[in-house]
Amino acid sequence: MSYRYLKIPHLIERLEYEKTVDKMVEILKGEKSILAIYRMGNVNHPGISDLDLIVIFKDEASCNLKPSKHFSEIDQYIFTHSLAGASESFFRKMSAYTFWDKLNCIWGEEVQNLENLSAEETELIKRQTALEYLYKNYIELCIQRSYRVLKLRSILQEIKAIRYDLNFLKIDEGQLYESVKELLSMLDHWFEINFDRKKFGVWLDRYFVVLEQTLKNLADKEIKLWLPKQESYQYGKNVQIKGGDKLEFKRSGVSLPPYIVSQNKRLYNANQRLNEFSVAIPYTYGEPGSLYSDRLKVFQAYKKYNRDNIPHFEAMFSSFSNQLV
């Protein structure tokens, strides 16, 4: 399938990332309600990688600071979304349910006494987290492929992170595993050669097929996504998730021509409003329901806390769950 592209990455020097971090720390540390600032992950692929900062606030504190007001054009490129934030208590609680990569306190004092689950419970949460990210990737690709317009940088970021989810699911071989390895190799040399739109489109179509087949195979083995029991779920503004015996995606509506949709973000979002999507997922609402239900309740309370007290800072958990709570 031929595609048009939005958000084609361009090279940003690693030094620019460090300048952006230093700038944001200087702005944030002036807020008396902030206890600590954490940085997550590494800039392995400058120009493709983004930055993630997690800001820890005193319990019951309120803060109306909007970090994005201080973003330069480069800052906005480096931070692809709002900064994450949490109260000290919610940061402790979330440590049991979230698997942060290379989390490092870069200002303030590290939060102590983080909460933990048993080894068995942690494995179950890892499996649930991995399935959430795989299904999110599947849904996003279904939508973008149906428009024949790809948001390239976000796709690259999502798929390169799938390696962690495969690890959680103990998948260390097979076509999906090899496809992700192939992408990581591409990213290592991304800016050394001209971007070949056609070649990447061919690779993405192959990746999508093996992603879909992997999800079907996992469901056949009873490795299923857990969702609370209800008739359907609203995922974002125009996607409805339903239970089903097999994985299935449907679109209704009319899409503008790809050359129009790919002009800018505004036209892409306008096209979204012309379409509705339905995804049937063979999920489970059975055991260990209490573990997953408790996790979801913490997510809901945490998201509400941020909305009420630190509205310009994101809740830091799976974006699949974030769409549902």
Describe what this molecule looks like in 3D.
With 325 residues, this protein is of the alpha/beta class. The protein has a domain at 14-117 and 300-316: Beta Polymerase, domain 2 (2-Layer Sandwich). It has eleven helices and ten strands. It has helices spanning 14-28, 73-78, 88-94, 119-147, 152-168, 175-188, 197-220, 258-261, 265-272, 289-309, 319-324, and strands spanning 4-6, 34-40, 52-57, 84-87, 104-108, 149-151, 232-235, 239-243, 248-253, 275-281. The strands form three sheets. The chain has a four-stranded mixed beta sheet with strand order 4-3-2-5. α2 links the parallel β3 and β4. α6 runs antiparallel to α7 (197-220). The mean pLDDT is 95.
The CATH topology assignment of the domain at 14-117 and 300-316 is: Beta Polymerase, domain 2
Largest sheet: 4 strands, mixed
Helix content: 40-55%
Give the amount of beta strand, in percent.
Answer: 15-25%
- Counting DSSP E segments of at least 2 residues, the number of strands comes to 10
CATH class division of the domain at 14-117 and 300-316: Alpha Beta
Radius of gyration (Å):
20 Å
**Distinct helical segment count:** 11
Mean residue pLDDT: 95
Second-tier CATH architecture of the domain at 14-117 and 300-316: 2-Layer Sandwich
User: What ranges have pLDDT less than 50 throughout 5 or more consecutive residues?
Assistant: none
Q: What is the 3D form?
A: globular
Could you spell the SSE succession in H and E letters? Answer: EHEEHEHEHEHHHEEEHHEHH
Sequence of strands across the biggest β-sheet: 4-3-2-5
Q: How many angstroms separate the termini?
A: 35 Å
- SSE-based structural type: alpha/beta
